[in-house]
User: Fold this.
Amino acid sequence: MRTPLVAANWKMNGSREFAEQFLAALDLEGVTAEVVVCPPFPYLAQVAEKVRGAVLGAQNLSKETSGAFTGEVSAAMLRDFDVRYVIVGHSERRSLYGEGDELVADKFFAAQREGLTPILCVGETLQEREAGQALSVIARQLQAVTGRASEDELQRVVIAYEPVWAIGTGKTASPEQAQEVHHFIREQLGAKGSGIRLLYGGSVKSGNAAELFAQPDIDGALVGGASLDADEFGKICRTAA
Ligand code: PGA
Assistant:
């Protein structure tokens, strides 16, 4: 039985005041899904202190453990703030910061070494989808991690399928399109696949969450834009049961 999971990815949005108001307004009463809030680094402590009914996630981490890496944040530092989950391989990191499959895998294992659960993002661009390459791109992104992971390491992972063309665009993959890819991902994961939570991400809102969550291989969502509205995010969480 996979417990649904809904994660808020605030990206580089918010402020101290925003976090304060969001946490005061977030009502997770009656929510059975596991809820994760991933604020920007400076607000981790504030969210850790005030959040009720959700756990803390981070949006990024360094592959290094410590030392002369200006501007980087290590997995151990995240642990210090009670962070449980960390997003790795988000398409914005891949495309805007040149993070390739190997670096994503290094970050994945750096997180796991500190006991954090990586939320590994995979997904194809519009060009790749139109060229019929969606599944092969996703297989490659997965293989970069699964090819290096032990059976045990593969137990502690959440995977988010985020078609790049659906992120922040208002275009959502249809439930059938998303299900097809989720099913493919589960098959790629082999015997362990049935226990791994697979999230969908890309313009998820309260209005489309139910039909996505109704798909057999969709176990929750990674929510960007709609996670900046506590009421809307709460509704999405309530839909996942
Ligand atoms: P979006 O972002 O919900 O704004 O499309 C999702 C994500 O990038 O994780």
